[in-house]
Amino acid sequence: MTTVITGTGAVVEEPRPAGEDGPGAAGWFDPAAHLGRRGWKYFGPPTRYLLAAGNTALGRRHDEPPLTGGPAERLGVVTGTQYAIADVHRRMDDTLTTTGVGGIGPAEVPAFSMNTPGSQLAISTGARAFSVTLTNPVTGGLEAVQFAVSALRAGRADRVVVAATDRAPTGEDGREEREEYDAAAALVLRGHPAPGSSRPAGALTGITGGVSRFVPRRADGARDPAALAAAGRRIAALVAGAGDVPLVVSGPAAAAGFGHAVLEAVTASLREAGGSVRDPAGAVREARHCAVSGLLELIALARTEATGVVVSVSGSGHLTAVALGDPTRS
Amino acid sequence: MTVVVTGLGAVSCFGSGTAALWEGLLRAERRPVPAPETCGLPTRPPLYAAPDPVLPSPAPGTPGGEPVGRTGALLATAVTEAVGDAGLTAGELLDAGLTVGTSLGDIDLAETPGATDRYPATHRVTAGLAGRFGIGGPGHTLSTACSAGAYAVGWGAELIGTGQADIVVACGGDAFSRVAIGTLQRFGLVDPECCRPFDVDRAGMVTGEGAAAVVLESAGSARRRGARPRAALAGHGWSCDAHHPMAPEPSGEQLSRSVARALEGTGEVPGAVVLHRAGVAGNDAVEAEAVGRAVAAVGGTAADVAGYAPKAVMGHTAGAAGVFGCVIATLILLHGVVPPNAHVTTPDPGCPLGIPLGGPAPLTRPSVLVSGTGFGGNNAALAWRAVG
């Protein structure tokens, strides 16, 4: 069974030139514009972002009642995030070590759990099939896509909201010299009945599969070439020797070298299988939105292409690839 | 496709090793100790503390690399045992998957007292393990709060069932967190004495530290490797309450649905259930009723199923709890007995399940259920069956 993307949504803090960051930069997101005047005050920024992106992807208003009954039990949520608790955790820890336990306010308690943004999205929409949060740095967003595709194929849901949200840590010294920015993104996936049947109105292309690998370092610190080649083959297999495949690889600036190595490994494997990458000399795109980055790249590609592969790599050695494919074709 | 367990690993308040875990569960005596003086809280809360972990060996290729926190070190201890128990070679690990359940990851790195050296990237534990052991397949970190371990095992089985891996090391770990315990204290959720899940006077949870691991693989892979299966996964179910960020849905309808899906795979009434039950009265009641209903739906009687709550003697290990549940379920199947529930003066009269007390009880049927719940109403259940 293949899947089809029936909706997307994103809220993104755009990187600013040096010197324009600071506390005022938090004003890029207006919660009331997305979530109405009430109901979000006690939600942390990652939760607010996620609700905004998730509602847009589902095409629902923020004040619509959650699903109930059978439709609720067939809707799932998967969320990628790496920093959902970082800011609030630091604030709560400061409170505990200065004021003591009495200084902890009830409203902020849920925000210390990594799953809270995803759980609030599940509560808001009535998603009762499952709500799972994946927390690997950088790759968590695309891992959520892989998870959702597997869950749909296993019959654990009929629709899944695949999402990612992050609030880049402010650090101890404020938000100067930032390399990471805030964002949330979401897409809605559902199973597509069969090749040949028409695509739902307004739907984008489909997701045909995903793969995650880890490329360990050897004792000399270099990435294991055998593991890298194996990852390239697995990713190339997602598109089965297709030609002119749009390939997008993104990773943090510090992982650019690893990203290039992955790009080359995929290109080589695809060539061996008789296929080709559209731009084999393409650059590795800088991932500046933490675990949301890969999902943003996927949504951008899905809006312009029916097929392609998006790969997200982390400095730790994780990589996740997701393949787009037209669900109406066999 | 049948998924089997071929390796087990654990480190807990009983020390390192599944043998120490099983012995401690059978003794049913362990009580918590005060959290370390350096915990930074005005009153030292009770804690089922794990021994200070010693990293088994330096990770290859990481001199001066990312720091390893207490949870990462505990996980490395448990995974070392499980990988050795399963007899996995470096070549097999290079294509194996790794699923890690953790609530707060290496949170100690973010709770250091200095204002300038706190490390916000707390959830790198999977990368640390994958690098250390050379595990090159899919490596995912699942943080569904206290059911994270149950989801890590379930997702590991799903990776095998969908052909994305033949072998998956599924593990879970969490260590002391000032913020987690301080928050629980703030709202009166910590029992100041010990964890007493089946006692009518229970007064809350007590946290514990630890990590547990299972090596999952397809039955075919185990056969090819000559590995000995210890238990088979008969089914697993997921659901979400979609009700409240911290409290379970009172009817337990969704939890019962996940248990029912897990039991569909067995087609039989389990002999025992390793409960999530942590000593929080409302949550305990919802879980027991939900399990009881699912048992009734497959033709059983709740009172004939032995309910077991290991948190009484090892505390609530958060993201590790579900994996500990699976390790304990496997040990119950291997030994044919259910350890006695500890710290029970007056048994909870509202619990519909059987409550083994005083000594090990015979396992009357060869399957064991594991139940996991967490903040956000994240439910998961797994049904294990004896093999051989």
Automatic annotation (TrEMBL), chain A:
Residues 44-167 form the Beta-ketoacyl synthase-like N-terminal domain. GO terms for molecular function: acyltransferase activity, transferring groups other than amino-acyl groups. Pfam families: ketoacyl-synt (PF00109). Residues 1-25 are annotated as: Disordered. It comes from the Bacteria. This is Beta-ketoacyl synthase-like N-terminal domain-containing protein. It comes from Streptomyces calidiresistens.
